[in-house]
Amino acid sequence: MEPRPIDILLVEDDELDVMNIQRALHGAADVRSLTVASDGREALEMLRAGSLSLRRLVILLDLRMPRMSGLELLAVLRDDARLNHVPVVVLTTSADDDDREAAFRLHVAGYFVKPGAVGPFRELIAGLVRYWTWSELASGHD
C-alpha cells in the first residue's frame, strides 16, 4: 500500500496560524490541495457548494472563531448525511477539558493543542499529514 494524497480544508481565523500551516505544508507531495476558511460558516458554505472534493478530504478545525465556532460547525457536519463521514481533526489553543469532551462527543478524529513554538507546530502538521495519507478514508459522496 502506498500513501495517497489528501486535500485539506483548514478552518482557522488566525492569520499567523494559517501562514505557519501553509509553510509546514509547502512542498508536501502528499497534500494535493489546501483550502482555507476563516470560520465555520465559510467552511460550511464551501462544503455545501460542492466546490471541494470529499473523497480524500481532511478538515483541520480551530474551535474559537467568530460567526460559527468549530464546535457549532462539527454539530452541523455530523447531522448532514453528505458530510458526516469527513474526518475532522481539531487543532486549537484550547486545552479546556469541556472543549475536548464536546469535540469527541461530536466524533472528531483527533484533538491537538497547538504548540507555541514553530518547530513543534511544524512537526505536528507533518505528523498529521503522514497519518492521513496512509489512512483509509470513507469514500462518501462528492
Summarize, please.
The chain has 5 helices and 5 strands. The protein is α/β, with parallel strands linked by helices and 142 residues long. Helix 1 crosses helix 5 (118-134) and helix 2 (40-49) packs parallel to helix 3.
Fold-level CATH name: Rossmann fold
How many helical elements?
5
Strand order of the largest sheet: 2-1-3-4-5
Specify the biggest β-sheet: 5 strands, parallel
- Strand element count: 5
Structural class per helix/strand content? alpha/beta
Q: Tell me the span between the first and last alpha carbons.
A: 24 Å
Share of residues in helices: 25-40%
> What's the number of domains?
1
Radius of gyration: 14 Å
- The rough form would be described as globular
CATH architecture: 3-Layer(aba) Sandwich
User: Element order, helices and strands?
Assistant: EHEHEHEHEH
Q: Which homologous superfamily in CATH is the superfamily?
A: Response regulator
* pLDDT < 50 stretches: none
Q: Tags for this entry?
A:
single chain, 142 residues, alpha/beta, Rossmann fold, 5-stranded parallel sheet, 5 helices, 5 strands, 19% strand
